[in-house]
Amino acid sequence: MNDQCYWRDPQLPFVESRLAFGSRACYVPHTHDTLSIGAVDSGHSHYVCGDDRARLGPGSLVLIPATRVHACNPDTDSAWSYQMLHLDVAWASAVLRESGTANADDVLARPSINRDRDAYQRYCALNRLLFSNADSAEKEAALILFVGGRSWLGEARNVPPVPRVAVDRLRRIMDLLHDAYDERLPIEQLAQMAGMSRYAFIRAFRAATGMAPHAYQLDLRINAARRLLRDGCALTAVAHDLGFADQAHFQRAFKERVAMTPGAYRRAVGP
């Protein structure tokens, strides 16, 4: 049984993640050129980063700055399970600045340990999404909200009120999504239309519609798919014309929203 899983998506080149299960591997002191956020799931680890030393148990999060010498190893003759998220420093710094962190580079240069249970659960939820079959746009939005939210830093922070999108700008964005629901519209492009940072826009759009931008667009695609299937269109043609990555992606998204496969739906309601 493989005791490690890796995740990476070419469409999200600023992030990668790793899961380790029941590992007894030990590491010499080393560095990463990324910002690294680790979490202990079970067992215990002896953490060393510069002058900082600690024994980490389940539910602990640790922030390791880029190029900082460190090592995390399990108790002697013991195994541990952990997660490790690696983020491009420039990308993470930009998201923090967008969310209101003026000293983002300084924040990311300081190692820290966080034992807050809620922060650990948010981290685990993010990693579950990254390792899932969800669309890369949904994963990008979740990463922006996670990094911008700063719960992983272990700092007390007043989360700013959810911003509102100006009515006229929201209308333009909604019109674009309705007209181009079969196209991949980058979050950055939509945020620029709203005159907001990516972090603020995702929060504002979700507050206004009940969904993140990608989920809203995916919902429009499925509604269009239902119309096409009722008209007797072929499944492969519907998936292709609506911009789904492949048939499996289409099947999964459709079933999540209609509670039956596209084929079963067409047989039930088609001509």
Helical proportion, percent range:
40-55%
Q: What is the CATH level 1 assignment of the domain at 4-144?
A: Mainly Beta
**According to CATH, what is the topology of the domain at 4-144?**
Jelly Rolls
Q: How does the major sheet shape up?
A: 6 strands, antiparallel
CATH architecture of the domain at 4-144: Sandwich
Strand content: 15-25%
Q: Care to count the β-strands?
A: 9
Helix and strand sequence: EEEEEEEEHHEHHHHHHHHH
pLDDT < 50 stretches: none
General form: globular
Q: Which structural class should the secondary elements be placed in?
A: alpha+beta
List keywords for this structure.
271 residues, three-stranded antiparallel β-sheet, 45% helix, alpha+beta, Jelly Rolls, Arc Repressor Mutant, subunit A
